[in-house]
Amino acid sequence: MPLISVIMLTYNHEKYISEAIESILNQSFKDFELIVLDDGSTDNTGNIIKKYLSDSRVKYIYQENIGNKGFGIDKVINKAIELTNGKFICFAPGDDVSIPNRLELQINKFRLDPSIDIVFSDMWIIDEKSQVIAQKYLPEFSFTSNSFLRLLFKINLVTAPTVMMKRKCIEKVGLFEQGLVSDYHYWLKSAKVLNFKFIKTPLVKYRIHQKSLSRAPENRDFLVSETIRILKLMRKYYTIYDLYPEIRYCKDKNRALSDAYLDFGNILLTGNFPIPDLAIKEFTKSLKHHPNLAALNNLGIAMILDGKIKGGITFLNKALKQFGSNDKLLSNLNSATQMLDGILSSQFHLLTINSKESELKKTIDLYEQNPQHIEKKGYYYQAEALYNNGQETKAIKLFEKTLELDPNFALAHNDLACIYWQKRNIKKALHHITKAMELAPDNRDIIWNFGQILRGLGYAKNACKVYKDYLERHPGENEIRQVVEDLEKGQIF
Q1: Residue-wise over 7-30: b if at least 16 C-beta within 10 A, else e?
Q2: Which tens digits make up the pLDDT trace of 172-183?
Q3: pTM for this one?
């Protein structure tokens, strides 16, 4: 059984099929099968393919056309997948070209990191004569497991002709969905389930020609409407916490939610396929969680772009009245007023999250640098909230999760000590408060709790000494000084 199954879908590719097949057969990595599925070609494609059948790795299947000029492409893809045997499935269209070490580079990524499910790359763009038109297809970008999904709503980063995926992906997520953009739909629905890896080096030469499905004039309008339909469908599928997992690491949840809805509304307005009516909903939710100038301004712009000019102007004026004058806001009002007079304008300015003030933005940036630290904070904040609401058992579990990520997190030890003390679990309370003292001997709350536990156990003199030592370093702590005075007067011994 081959390790990799390469799927090559073709339809009337007589000009390009030889180059496509040979680019696979000449790969540096040899353990593969090549499944060539001919979806009812009416030109000489079939005869050209048959010349390669002497190579035992090539399997040729001809069928009556079911792709229907791209509208049934999902059926063709799924049929090809069912014909494969390999542990890995690789896509290589019949009009594109793979570089000689493509399979080797991709399979090595899986070997280096078994958690990876899908590997994709950038592409060169070539014309009908195989001349390079562009050195790269994708813009510069980077993503984390948290940011990948929301980035996908802005642009389809996963170029299907470059994809290699584990067969297990199909078992986890299922086959490709119906529609002209079935690949985009698949990446969107699997982004929270599967682990994607990007290779910056272009591994495929993607051919642009007049018969390309995406360039066919009869497909263009439908391609846009179908993509927008899928994006709207997938937005319903995900919560804002799915799109911005970093929210759970923020202490001020309302402000974080407001910033998340604002940011995602901007993504929907500035993506490859803008969706102003959906952006309106995001900005409205942002305002419900926290009134802010950016969401009001952007809500006005979204309404204008959705054809509701007067409504948009109303919100822009509301922003002006509520938050005062702003150069970009005034410019937006001017452009909108000109549109009422029949003067078209695209000079609108979206406002973004204030990076200096936004806890969410800071958390996103920090997560990219040190995800474990941010996850630790997230568990800690959740545990604190549960503790303050009297849900001590649940709080203990989250504090313990915090310590799994960072065994030296003094505040988590301190809070566990308090909970166990209240539960009269003296042994665990002493263990955690002692650990907290070792880690943060100058933390006022830890010192206070340590002293209170000592007093509760009948060791008031020891508590007094702990407090005195602290006061030598921090003489301004009047509350602790008063307790020391009372202890020394014998009022609390």
Answers
A1: bbbbbbbbbbbbbbbebbeebebe
A2: 999 988 877 899
A3: 0.78
